[in-house]
Amino acid sequence: MERFLKKTAVPGSSNAAAHRTLNASTTEVEVGQKQLPCVSLSMRSTRANIDNTKKLLDIAKLFDVKGEVQQIEFSSPLLSGDYRLIEVNPKLADRIESGERLVFRGELDDNPVLCTQQETYQVKEAETSNTLLVLPAVHFANEVGNGDHFLTARKVVAMHSQYVELRKLDVISLNRLKELLRENEIDWDETENPEQEGKSYTLDDLLDVVQMSEEQLMNALHYLPVIHQHGGYVSYI
After folding, report:
1. For the segment 209-221, what is each residue's pLDDT rounded down to a tens digit?
2. Which sequence ranges form a coiled-coil region, renumbered to this chain (predicted)?
């Protein structure tokens, strides 16, 4: 579990992605009594890159490629250690984009699980022979437009060949939850008004160590012989 603990993500390069257009306006400088157009080195470089890109597309016989051409650049330094890649299905991806929180749960010596509000996923580390690039922004084929070619610089902030696979768990073990709640069980036969003097566990306490989603935990507490007393949960016999 320790190697899966969340790291604080460090933002990528502070340089914003440069947006360069082929038909950029030229500046004018005064020479004697005349004004002459002056094309900057950056414009010349951009124009050269556009020309080279067009030649490359022609060689590849990609004559129908129009609009934005994205130029991939690597940040220095790369921040690969600040990112973990997780493969998710489209449904889960939509929920993440809508703001739903994901939480790794378990003790340091556990195999970690990943939990949404309602579900629990087994976590497995996988490796690919391809190199996966992390970019803050990139446009797909249906987003680049159909106009004249122009260059957009895209910064790669991290790269990985490993990622995390998820498998949804349909059956959740309750063993650890039962063990925790039985540490200070109440015996109803000892008194008419039983009071629990030892440690009780709050919902947050249980979520820290029990490997299930919050909704699954609440359902388990509803069906187990458990009472809520003094802000915590205890089992009874």
Report:
1. 999 999 999 999 9
2. none
